[in-house]
Amino acid sequence: MAKIFCIANQKGGVGKTTTTVNLAAGLAKIGQRVLMVDLDPQGNATMGSGVDKRQLAHSVYDVLLGSATVQQASVRAEACGYQVLGANRELAGAEVELVDLEQREKRLKNALAAVDAQYDFILIDCPPSLSLLTLNGLCSAHGVIVPMQCEYFALEGLTDLVNTIKQVHANLNPDLELIGLLRVMFDPRITLQQQVSEQLKSHFGDKVFDTVIPRNVRLAEAPSYGLPGVVFDPAAKGSQAFVAFAREMVLRVQAALAG
Ligand code: ADP
Ligand code: MG
Fold it and tell me: Rounded to whole angstroms, what are the CA distances from 17 to 88, 94, 127?
């Protein structure tokens, strides 16, 4: 059975997509079978996995509307080692079209059930909003991974997200939990970032992942080559951090299953 995680944060530019594609590549690298689902109409995770969003025969849009299965709509990102259920601008329209459909927030969950046995991990890159698309992600998942920068306003938006997770847990998906906060784009030379990082740890305890992702230009360059940093430059500090994060995720999943 696949473990399904949403990478979510309603702020834009905080590192969701970078986390999704690099965690996917990191997990693939250590032998896990991974499906990456792009739920953002911007399609950055699709492009960043080397899949051209303009050339998709089917996308997650078709899956949400029920006109294609996950099997039919997903493609192999050969260089990256994982499967991609891509997205493009068409997905922006789904928000409106879903409203009238039955079980509108569970469309993705129901579709993913068919491929559950084929993967160890399914990672869902969410758009920067708490929209019906994000809700479909949250209803499908066992847990939420929240990438965040250790900046002054970082904690502010977190309250809304934590409340949304609680509401979804209570009303729609009892499996859902906040797995953890991932500190990304971290620069240890900046005192403020160290302070916020300490605050996070004292406030959220073991909900803060041990792995810290450093600010690393190679991670930012990789998308223009259609590759996750982990594949583009495996030796880069940021890439190594994401492989370490993949290992931490595998250990957390094993620990959760055991106990
Ligand atoms: P989101 O999906 O939350 O909007 P992205 O993953 O697209 O955020 O990241 C926003 C920008 O920051 C992108 O240009 C990305 O390349 C860059 N970026 C993300 N993580 C890092 C990092 N660890 N080091 C350097 N640049 C990063
Ligand atoms: Mg993104």
Answer: 14, 20, 9
